[in-house]
Request: fold
Amino acid sequence: MEQLIVLGEIPGTHLQITFSWFALLVIIGVVVIGYKLHMRHVAQLRQKLQQHYDTIALGSLDKA
Reply:
């Protein structure tokens, strides 16, 4: 039944997008954006952790 719901014709083409294709595109978009946000967060954590270890290493050198 979802295949029968037509949202409209894509401009410049002869394609019509159905609800299920629209939902699939939205889900893919959300997954891609979520993945990019997650990877950016991991990179920031990695950078902060590296700065923390660099600070500890410099402190150890000062004590030596």
Remarks:
- The two ends are 74 Å apart (CA to CA).
